[in-house]
Design brief:
Elements: H1 5-20, E1 27-30, E2 33-36, H2 42-48, E3 58-62, H3 68-83, H4 87-100, H5 113-116, E4 125-128, H6 137-141, E5 145-150, H7 153-166, H8 175-183, H9 192-200, E6 208-212, H10 213-218, H11 220-231, H12 237-246, H13 249-254, H14 256-260, H15 264-267, H16 282-295, H17 300-304, H18 307-310
Parallel strand pairs: 3-4, 3-5, 5-6
Antiparallel strand pairs: 1-2
The protein binds adenosine-3'-5'-diphosphate.
Length: 313
Amino acid sequence: MTMNRKRIEILDKMSADADKLAPEDKLFTYKGILYPLAICKLENFQALETFDARTDDVILAGYPKTGTNWLETMLRDLEFRAGKYTEEEYKRRMAIEEELAVPPRLEFGDLDAIKRMTKLPSRRIIVTHLPPLLLPKSIFKNKAKILALTRNPKDTMVSYFHFSNNFSAFPNATWDAYFRDFMNGKVCWGSYFDHVSEWDKYIDDENVMGICYEELKEHPNLGLQKIAKFFGFSVNEEEIKSVVENCSFKAMKQKSTETHGAFGDALFRKGSVGDWKSLFSESQNQEMDRRFKECLAKSKLGAKMKYEVYCKS
Ligand code: A3P
């Protein structure tokens, strides 16, 4: 599969715009949630209301740092294989995507992006970090299928901390300050706990499927089979195996400069479960354990993460 040069240019521009912002101007608030100004614009949220979802859209919704780039690449690969495109068709599709310069996440980018997305051929793979209440209504109305991605809160926080300190769109912070902000929902895209709880309310809808990072690390082939079945991607076992191999952490990291430009290194960092042990203090551990128990332990998405296995020292 070819990568999309335009997306790298978009990411580079965000980075250049972020470098020009003073630390106190980097963030803005929309409906009580923080967003990075170099990546999202307030007007984009209004433009989202005009987004016209298609029934066959493939929506991936995950809080930042839960593995959205990994899942997106797997979904694109599944779509490509299931589409059985001729070389010519594939090149044409790529050229359209390139020309439209669609930003990597639904809520990123310029004001006109939503309009340009109407010209993308089906099936569109659309990725977002937004909670269900901020998504365009047409996604639910037109019954587009949604994959709700989660990752355990400790690894998500550690991954987000490193990424924020490596990307000028976010404010820099020490680990202790970042821990406090994350626990209070004072990070971009808001509270992790609210995000997972909100998606959990939709988890029994027939058009929503929950998946978690840890289960894909444990059983990638099985996880992908379930995803392919949910979206109706007709692929055989050999193809699933190839997607898993192409999208292994090692393979994606190796190609990361080609696929994500200067961001590659920061995006494909460790790709493991349990890196939280490198930063969490004992009291931070206990605080997170209490919060998980209070907010998510009884939820279906919370249960999927196997918190007792992966998040206890
Ligand atoms: P770490 O920072 O813990 O390494 P997102 O894509 O939503 O920004 O999430 C980034 C996280 O997903 C990073 O976690 C990254 O390394 C991990 N990741 C990316 N590609 C992966 C892959 N192929 N397999 C496993 N993890 C991957």
